[in-house]
Specification:
single chain; Cytochrome C Oxidase, Chain J; flat; membrane; mainly alpha; mitochondrion inner membrane; Cytochrome c oxidase subunit 7A2-like, mitochondrial; mitochondrion; transmembrane; 3 helices
Length: about 90
C-alpha cells in the first residue's frame, strides 16, 4: 500500500466568494493617507522634564489621572463602609 498522507494535501473549498488581497498587492500610497504622529509623540514622551509618562501631555492627562484617583479612593471608601455595615448585626 505504501505511505499515505494523513492530512489531505488538497486546498479546502472556498467558503466566501471574495478573494483576499495580499499586502504586496496593495498600493503603498493609498493604504494610509494620514500623517505619522509617532516621531512627534516620541519627542514629547522622551523629553527630560521630570514629569511621569502618564502626565506628559498636559491638562487632559492630569484631568484623567485625577478623575481616576478620585474614583479609586471613592470606591475604596464605599467598599470599606459597605464591609463595616455588613459586619454589624441587625437590631431587632
Amino acid at each position: 500500500q505504501g505511505l499515505k498522507p494523513i492530512v489531505s494535501t488538497e486546498s479546502p473549498a472556498l467558503i466566501f466568494g471574495t478573494t483576499t488581497k495580499l499586502a504586496s498587492d496593495l498600493p503603498a500610497a493609498d493604504s494610509f493617507l494620514g500623517k505619522n504622529k509617532v516621531p512627534d509623540l516620541q519627542k514629547v514622551f522622551q523629553r527630560a522634564d521630570g514629569l511621569p509618562v502618564h502626565l506628559k501631555r498636559g491638562v487632559p492627562d492630569k484631568l484623567l489621572y485625577r478623575t481616576t484617583m478620585a474614583l479609586t479612593i471613592g470606591g475604596t471608601i464605599y467598599c470599606l463602609v459597605a464591609l463595616y455595615m455588613a459586619s454589624q448585626p441587625r437590631n431587632q
